[in-house]
Amino acid sequence: MPREVEVKSVLNKSKRRDSWFLSEYTINPYSGCGFNCLYCYIRGSKYGSNLEQSLSVKTNFIEILERQLYNRAKKGEYGIIVLASATDPYLKIEKDYKLTRQALEVILNYRFPVHILTKGTLIERDFDLLHKIDQTAILPEDLKGRLKQGSIISYSFSTLDDNVGEIFEKGTTLPTPKNTAIDIKKGVSDGCKPNAFNPLDLRYHRKPGASIFNI
Predict the structure, then answer these.
(1) Which end of the chain is more exposed for a tag (fewer CB within 10 A), N or C?
(2) Would you list the domain boundaries of the chain?
């Protein structure tokens, strides 16, 4: 069972926009990771080799996020929020806690753009919110005209082989279901960006019709 903790702050402001992820803010509803991928750079650190044992849930996450986004929106300090930067927002426990979905509801309310980084197919549950964010988000002034999306989704792949995936990413979704989740007919068309992150498998696959976003 994950530990339940309370935190004082959840919205992290970057000193400058990240050139790859375009993030100006990052949020992490959870800490630790239940995916436990064998190639993860965190393995062997203070968290040990079984990251699932350090998994924790920020029980007051939504309350703090609501207050901090209200303050930023009131000042017009809009920027892309990356969800999440330190752990996957669609861990298995998200199915029960729903902190990521609740966070997207708050983000939609305050009209911030969002960039989702995930390996999990549970994101399909939230395509309705991501589509609404895509249509209503307020982009930073210097990105208007250069960026059309208010919602961006990035998947990472270590392999396209399900058998290899079961070995190296035994806690996460296999490649075949992830490819299905990239179907742009789900309602997040122009904001879907499949990324290939391949330390194990140099083959690259792009699902026909999927849109690649570059800036």
Answers:
(1) N
(2) 3-194
Contacts of 82 (CB under 8 A, 6+ apart): 18, 21, 23, 25, 26, 27, 114, 115, 117
Q: What confidence score (pLDDT) does residue 9 get?
A: 97
The amino acid sitting at 188 is V
Sheet bearing 25-27, strands edge to edge:
12-13, 25-27, 81-83, 114-118, 151-155, 192-194
Q: How far apart are CA 167 and CA 67, in angstroms?
A: 42
Gap between the Cα atoms of 118 and 122, Å rounded: 9
Residue type at 81?
Answer: I
pLDDT tens figures, 5-20: 999 999 999 888 888 7
Q: Which two tokens stand for residue 198?
A: 């391949």
